[in-house]
Amino acid sequence: MPIIGMNFKSIEAKKESGAPRQEVKVNSTPMITNVKEVNVPTLTKKALSVDFEFMTRYDPGFASISIHGSLMYLSDKNKAIVDEFQKNKKLPEKESLEVLNYLFRHCLLKASLLADDLQLPPPMPMPKITPKKK
Length: 134
Known about the structure:
Blueprint: E1 3-15, E2 25-38, E3 47-59, E4 63-73, H1 78-88, H2 93-117
Antiparallel strand pairs: 1-4, 2-3, 3-4
């Protein structure tokens, strides 16, 4: 996997007072905000720094979790990836799938812990154990 690391720059979780009076809908959205080539002293080649924002919203607007950070991505096509992002504000499909899947896995876990601390529903379905049918 070409993702060699990730760090969080800021995490914010907030909940309005009072319980919602209707069904709660949870929506999580990752967004890539910047891509740039960087030197990594321990590697012999350059890597890409991919800045991201991961938002989880609880509608109707009573809570949100915001995670900002960056990840390091190794590729042999750094210039093409940076050019594509600067032109269209998106990564090429292969790289986009790798980055977004990585963000969903790691950020949803972090958001789930924060949601539990705020007594919010988890941002992803949790498995349920049911009795065996006789």
